[in-house]
Amino acid sequence: MMNEKLQQAFSKQINAELYSEYLYLIMRDVFKELNLEGFVNWFDVQVQEERAHAMGLINYVYQRGGCVEYSAIDLPKLNGRNPIEVFEQVLSHEQFVTSKINELFDVAVEVKDRASQNFLNWYINEQVEEEESACNVLTTLKLIEGDKYALLMFDKELSARTFTAPVIG
Ligand code: OFO
Q: Is the domain 4-158 a CATH 3.20.20.70 member?
């Protein structure tokens, strides 16, 4: 049975993952309007990943005999809509999510739930990839800033990204 405090912390993280899904769906629209289908694909994959992250947490809570407390998902607001500005927000959002996963892990340590600590290691490692992936796109966007041809080439490159359902835990 899962400790009540830890259960609540898991529920908060589930909300954060669903918020991420919502955020990336909104960011996807920015690139849809620009007709940059490779970026749209990048966000399609990201949306699926966030749903998988949320489902992984939900399934785990139930596996441990707990239950999830759902709450309203805030409407994400974008500060800036050009590609660089959007990816700056992706990176800072992922850094924020990393800090939330770390906080959740700290609660698992506090209540001495070793199974949850073990489970959450997957999310800690995943956040390294999430930050790296956002950072890579941002770095390239800054490199090619102002070069429309290079942007189109990069867009083509991003269309190759595919979603593979992660094996969580
Ligand atoms: Fe769920 O990792 Fe991104 O937010």
A: no
